[in-house]
Amino acid sequence: MTDRIVIIPTYNEKENIEAIIRKVFSLDIDFEILIVEDNSPDGTADIVKGLQKEFSQLHILERKGKLGLGTAYIDGFKWCLARHYNYVFEMDADFSHNPEDLIRLHDACANQGGDLAIGSRYVSGVNVVNWPMGRVLMSYFASKYVRFVTGMKVHDATAGFICYTRKVLETIELNKIRFIGYAFQIEMKFTTWKYGFNIIEVPIIFTDRTEGTSKMSGGIFNEAVWGVIKMKLRSYFRKYNRA
């Protein structure tokens, strides 16, 4: 058993799930995988269960339906903390995140003093492939907006390719995380920063999915815009004391 585990939330990812699992398990250092599966009607769970016969380091947490990205990760974090993993990763199933970069994110935490490592699209320019220009601009300026409102010096606040150390997840009160959509990513980084943890941004190239369908929507963007203001205001009434 390794102390590194990758959480991959899934909903209708039958085109990608076997390939991403095999790729992670082919890397030069060992990772385990936890699939958080939201009752996909396309049979994603059946594919994962079939692969469990081949890979003992593959786990699945099945949920009753599509309950939101944030709750998928929170449930995954709690599962991992209960089993004493030291490095917990977030990654998409669709190859928009290059699994090879898991090694670099781990190195940032294990060897460079990071408590949280972010696979960042914007720390060294704009490194996004196959996105329409409108979506690139929306994502880029959303992170600029978060920096302006919160004061947090993170270039890619909405990034979903991340390595958390165990101490970060144990310190954050996971039940107090409010957002369940993509603004969840912002709130987790902001809370980590408010606790004074060291955040390292690792430059990556983000490539949009070629298989399956995106879950991004205008409602998700609106949650991030207005939610950031509410999150900042709430932070004035909360104490961030580390044990």
Automatic annotation (TrEMBL):
GO molecular-function terms, A-Z: dolichyl-phosphate beta-D-mannosyltransferase activity
Swiss-Prot/TrEMBL keywords: Glycosyltransferase, Transferase
Stored SUPFAM superfamilies: Nucleotide-diphospho-sugar transferases
Organism: Ancylomarina salipaludis
Any one GO CC term of the record: membrane
Keyword Hydrolase included in the entry's annotation: no
Residues in Glycosyltransferase 2-like domain copies: 6-171
Keyword Transmembrane helix part of the UniProt annotation: no
Family: Belongs to the glycosyltransferase 2 family.
Protein's name in the database: Polyprenol monophosphomannose synthase
Any one of the GO BP annotations: glycolipid biosynthetic process
